[in-house]
Design goal:
By secondary structure, this protein is mainly alpha-helical. Helices cover 69% and strands 0% of the residues.
Length: 109
């Protein structure tokens, strides 16, 4: 994802001597300044993206235009339609499984 690319770029820019104690904290500090959304993304992911501005901003959360272009394709109609199709298939499978379980329970009675 875009945030991984930003971290990898920062990592490549720092020489090996800068990667000692406190390295991760410094990376997060710089990341928070350059791309604040990247700094909160892992927390948002672990919390299943709660409905708040930090995790679900209304507009592209990245400072770099490249980041917005990178994730912009996720909202395209073709991709949305594919997600909707897959979600419908999953719901249908779950419904069939529930019906089968109910039938099995009725047969056991």
């Amino acid at each position: 994802d875009f945030c991984t690319r930003v971290v990898n770029k920062l990592d490549a820019e720092w020489d090996a001597g800068d990667k000692g104690e406190g390295y991760e904290e410094r990376i997060m500090e710089v990341l928070s300044e350059q791309e604040p959304y990247c700094a909160v993304f892992d927390d948002c992911l672990s919390l299943d993206f709660p409905d708040n501005y930090a995790c679900r901003p209304k507009e592209c959360p990245f400072n770099a235009a490249m980041g917005c272009r990178y994730v912009g394709g996720c909202g395209g109609e073709v991709l949305r339609a594919e997600y909707e199709r897959i979600e419908e298939e999953i719901r249908e499978e779950e419904k069939q499984q529930q019906q089968q379980q109910q039938q099995q329970q009725q047969q056991q009675q």
